[in-house]
Amino acid sequence: MNPIEFTFQPLKGEPSRLVFTAGQTKIGLMIVPDPVEAHNKGCSLTATRLSANFQLAFLSGEGYRPNTDIHYRFVSDATKEDVIHSDANGMIRIAMLAHSKDQKTGQAVFEITEKNCSPKVSYEWGNP
Known about the structure:
- The chain is mainly β.
- The protein has strands at residues 16-22, 25-31, 36-40, 43-49, 56-61, 69-75, 79-85, 92-97, 106-112, 120-125.
- A hairpin with a 7-residue loop joins strand 9 (106-112) and strand 10.
- The radius of gyration is 17 Å and the shape is globular.
């Protein structure tokens, strides 16, 4: 059997989705060939593009204290500081919307502000 080669030309942080089928069996796969990610002291943080212009991002991470409030800061047009609760496995997940009243493009920064680990990701949003 010959190997199959896939070629992707994704935008930064853009997921590519594949489905392999054989009869009744279906296997779904999502990969992010050019991820936006950071690691710090055993914690990870990833931003995945949910909209073409990266205005909407899915932020996820692992390595945090289980079942704990995790403090974060999100900066786009304004600064938002808040808390997200980690699950029993020390994972966090949140979607954030970057926007500006005056601009159609900009930079978003999402940072965990815990003393035991503080990864930070930033990405450009606006026209893809």
